[in-house]
Queue: 4 jobs
Job 1
Amino acid sequence: MKSYNDKLNDILKEQADIPDIVLNKANQAFHEIRQGNVKRTKQAKWQKRSFQTAAASIAALFLIGTTAYAATEHFSLLSKFKDESPSVQKQAAALLETNVTQPSAKNPESALSPASQEAFASFRVKEAICDKTKIFIALEAKPSDPDKYLLIPSEYAGELDTLDISNLDIQGIKASGVSIREYAKDHGKECVILSVGIPSKADCQTYEYAMDPDGTLCYTISFENVERTKELTFVCNTGVCPPNGSLDTDMIKDSFTFTLDDKTDSETIPYVPETVEKIAGTDLILDGVTFEKSALGMIGSVKYHYAGNHTDWLKTKDGDICFFLYDENGKELTGTEGGTDIGDDGITMTQRWRYSATELPDTLVVKAKDVFEKIEYGEVKVKLQKQ
């Protein structure tokens, strides 16, 4: 089954010159889109299905003026769970890995470079939290000489003269009208551009970063645990561009591997619809809802299919529909991130969304909405299928 993200990637690239890094990191725009905070412009009809895919969320970046990268807090990965229940916080603390296995051997290709990355910065995985559905990684990049070098994420490389220094989220530094390059010059530092990437099978990844007072650039990287194996090995690709160097020709590339242990299990919680018929106002039929619940959260999958006559139905209003889950008292089960996959037949769809770990009721109400036009269509009740 090809990801709907991948299919829309092709469409987007045909219609706009969009860097791959933006397409890969645009996942954080999803939440804004689902909440109806994004408006579709008449000049951009192709942006319609942005809420359904990570790839298309680039449209939201243009419209709401945000970024897929964001400031994170200057302490442990456990801060990611500060708004969760005490039981989830306890689980996260138990799963926190602070001695991540990462060989010191370097990529042999880096030895061919006239300079090593360590002349400017060094990288290591500081912490990690892994459960059956999601992985969180804290990666540190330390300057070789904090008095000489200011480490900059590659996403800011073209905006050193325009972005306020507060964008680096340095502790104690607020917006001041001083650009990143001006700040570096005022403090006798040179800008060193860094690139970091951890390839995985997940459709989307979220990268957040902040800078500690000692100049350490801290990345927080999170993505779905697709492999679902007990031992997980990843490659971290790193790049360092020396001061005044070119990202195209002077980037010093390297990589290292690291291994995480998944000590958790998950349970599957299925729901079946009370009725199997077209949802009012649409040609869509809900097939079922399934949750995969793990120690730190849940992934809810809403499965449905198109039952109309349009061969290119994704361009109709039904292609704009997103599903929202409620209990019978009208309280929404609020998701934080996700997307939609399209089946090989072109008509079956699976909307997958991540939710906080919570007790699920026996009955859920699934409502179909168009978040762009702010239209509510019909709803279907689904019942917990007893195991």
Job 2
Amino acid sequence: MIKEKHVIIELKRAADGRLYTDGEKFPRDTDVDVLRVQVDVDEDGCQEPEDRRVSRIYPVFRQAGKIYDEWSDYVCHHGCAVCSATSVLAAWVNGLGDIMPQNVINTIEPEVLTQSEWDKNYGKSPQERMPVSMHGIGCMLEYYGIQWEHISKVRGASATAKIRNHLCKGLPVIVETSRIRYKWGIPVSINDRKYAGSYHTMVILAIEKDMQTVWVTDSAHRLWAGESQRLKRVKLADLMNYMFNCHAPDDKSPYFKGRLSTGGFILVSNKERMYD
């Protein structure tokens, strides 16, 4: 039986229009197979009709849940990216609310990323099959009319400001972390593993009023997080210490093929491009 739970994130609107959530209402017991995170926007103070957004429900999956049919072993070892992509697609596309990662693998990936690329990746031995890349995630979002922007550089105030500003609009950010912890862009621990055993994809859903603390989905189990597993409350600065630049942002590979072609973060939006 699948262990599920439904929680609500309420985004309140500050006087300056920024959307934030209340840290005191963080749902701590989220060690389940599927956590359905409903993000509601408090519409008080909206000035324009286009500012009004319906509730979105993001299903957050446990990679090791053994609920993915013949793909359970793959999802357990390499499924963070498809789990994150599934979360966003389910929340943003009408008719996909009940979609599971195995549905994305079996149906959406070959349709969007091409059957030949799918065959090339999944025709390998189970140990050699790679996760979908950041570009591959973006292609699936675009297929369903969702705007996306891959920001390749994560260092500096500009990258932090882009993430904060995006979250303050009530919009999610897909991030890529590694096991390496950085300080001022310099590796200080090459095997820290706080947010990743190797590489790991997650989705930031909300930011608190302090503009420092974020709520991020996580398909993996982290001992340090206790009972807060599918949804974690962390400092944005700490999370960004484990993010890394994408050094080949023009690489169009739909599946992961090395560190140079991954990294950075994706801004998800229903608007046009936000940054040049």
Job 3
Amino acid sequence: MITLAGHLIACLFWGLLIALTLTGICILIARSYTNKGVNPLICIVLSIFILYQSVLAVGAMYAKGLVQDIHDTVENVAETAGGMLSSNEISRQLKEHFPDMPQNIQKNIADTDTANSITSQADMIAGQYISQLNGYILKRLYWALGFMAIGTILLIIFPYGGKNRKSKGGNSSIPAWNKYDVDF
């Protein structure tokens, strides 16, 4: 449970760092096209959208690492067993190391006969999960780049020029007590 919380905090931290960096790039691009300031509302919304995508992408990267850890453990257990342990025993050991491992993987390993077929099945399953996670990360990257493009265009179209401080009455730079040249 502590490891999960650590991974969650790390995903949020790295996602925030990536989001701030990408938002900063959008701001720099927008400011290079206009000499005005950037709209803070657009920046905040853009940061939130990019943060969401970057946290999901970083989480998928952590998941890839977990898949690789499970794969390595399956191979190590199968090699050290060398045919001495049954597939049910290997499945039990894996469940001890990774209690949150999906049930379908544990069932597939328990149904397999030899250590060689267990490692080949582990290669196949890990390859499928990693392939799906790579596709997921690529989708998050495309969404983040799309948000960056739209956000940069909006920052260029709607720059922040500050509030118009001129009043309808004319010389607003003259203090009110001296406006009518009255001595107190």
Job 4
Amino acid sequence: MKNIKKEGYTLETLSTVVLSPREKEYFFVEEENNIIYPFYRYGIYEEYKEEAIQYYIPGSSIKGAVMGFNKKEKKRNHIMFDDILIKDKEDIGLYPLNKVQYVMQDKKTPKKIKIDTFFPNIRIEMLKANKKYKGEVFLQGSFKEYLEETTQCTKRKVEKFCSQINAILDMSKDNIEDNNREILNRLKENLKNVKDKIEQIKDEYYIFLGGYKGFLLSANFNDEMIENEKITNHINEVSSAIYIDKEKNLPHGLVKIKLFDL
């Protein structure tokens, strides 16, 4: 590729990030009776180990998060991200999945909507919140412009997600415990703060990185998709899964990016 330039950026996790190699790759820890899904790591392991492991954030995952909105393959092929090494293994933690449950259920035998551990015997290695790394990207064109576009996509995702929370709260009425209602309201307020920052701060960019975000935060909404009846119906059914980082009261995978001169 001609006219390739290198740019530097910082990546800061605002909530826990889930990046697992493959759904079929997991370890069974017999003494704890747990199944563990690992974070990306170099090498092949026959059993679960925490020592002497080199964790990393795949450049391909960052590219997918930054460029997912852009379906023009030519542009996608003109940008490359290096892997980011996670030098301190303490940056990785082992967490259960917390999910909003019983949103869609049998009306004849209703259960109270609750936020609880999803599959209690499953633990997932996640990149902890409030961790900051430096990365490098090689591209033609302006990285800043790509980040501006994907940040607007993130803003649309947040808006749709908050609408879903409102729909759940309106629908649930008395069919949700007070503490769970408070968690959903805090989640909505925290995301509103993210939306405000997107609108007010021009040198910070936001993406959702990794898995366990649910449909609304995984889809890349453009104007055409917003008008699409199928997408609208899907949102109205409030059937998109909601997973929560309960320590931060945010969805998984929220990441802030800032540029710096090399």
